[in-house]
């Protein structure tokens, strides 16, 4: 099982403490209470999974919506559970890739990641 996270939330429980004030204001409405946040978080679902999971995590270093630490924490958890994680942090990018060169690099890196998983 493999996937790519493009500046995605990996731990909804800690997101409220890590994101900027605007985003944190509607997280309960969007994600629910603490129990629902935990159920909806890849970080916590990983503990329940019997599958080896391989994920490429892509973040902007300046992201204030989903801070890069979210990607690093999930990568550590994936590796502990026997999966594989690659974290790709783009300099001078925030939430979403704005620089066309970075977008191209992102696509090439994603292709390379999946090629390493092919038999």
TrEMBL record:
Single annotated GO MF: serine-type peptidase activity
Entry's transmembrane regions: none
Record GO biological process: proteolysis
Organism superkingdom: Bacteria
SUPFAM superfamilies xrefs: alpha/beta-Hydrolases
Domain Peptidase S9 prolyl oligopeptidase catalytic: 2-116
Name of the protein in its database record: Peptidase S9 prolyl oligopeptidase catalytic domain-containing protein
Organism this protein belongs to: Vreelandella sulfidaeris
């Amino acid at each position: 099982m493999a996937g790519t996270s493009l500046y995605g939330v990996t731990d909804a429980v800690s997101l409220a403490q890590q994101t900027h004030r605007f985003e944190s204001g509607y997280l309960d409405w969007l994600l629910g209470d603490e129990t629902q946040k935990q159920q909806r978080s890849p970080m916590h679902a990983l503990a329940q999974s019997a599958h080896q999971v391989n994920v490429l995590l892509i973040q902007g270093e300046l992201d204030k919506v989903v801070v890069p630490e979210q990607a690093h924490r999930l990568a550590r958890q994936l590796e502990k559970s026997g999966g594989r994680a690659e974290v790709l942090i783009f300099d001078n990018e925030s939430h979403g890739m704005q620089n066309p060169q970075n977008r191209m690099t992102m696509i090439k890196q994603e292709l390379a990641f999946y090629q390493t998983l092919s038999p």
